[in-house]
Design brief:
Length: 126
């Protein structure tokens, strides 16, 4: 939603109207739902920094499985350990974490109706 006018769904570019017809209207980086390739492939022990931009006017609670993260605050300080970051519309925030838990981990909006309609991706720690 928000500025989404088209996105990739199951490998095909769809218009927003087609996405709505399929009950899918949230995307990460222009792709709706789970992808074959992860958002990121991390080595065990690697430190990851992920900038997140909420390109909608809706709040989203970004939730990472498998590892806790800290928000990177202005000035480079870090916030408390979290597994979810509530982001308001138009916000850009950054999280950082050590990829210390091998596996395939969901990264999704914790408003589960959003996750079920496209706001779900994953990352891998080898
Ligand atoms: Cu959401």
């Amino acid at each position: 939603m928000g500025n989404l006018d088209a996105a990739i769904l199951e490998g095909e570019r769809k218009t927003f109207r087609q996405l709505v017809d399929a009950n899918q209207f949230w995307a990460f980086n222009g792709t709706v739902g789970m992808t074959e390739k992860p958002l990121a492939s991390l080595s065990r022990g690697e430190t990851a920094r992920v900038e997140i931009y909420n390109d909608t006017s809706f709040p989203h609670a970004m939730h990472l499985h498998g590892m806790h993260f800290r928000e990177v605050l202005e000035g480079g300080e870090v916030g408390p350990l979290r597994d979810t970051l509530l982001m308001f519309g138009g916000e850009t925030r950054e999280i950082a974490f050590v990829a210390d838990n091998p596996g395939k981990w969901l990264f999704h909006c914790h408003m589960l109706s959003h996750a079920a309609s496209g706001m779900m991706t994953w990352l891998e720690v080898a």
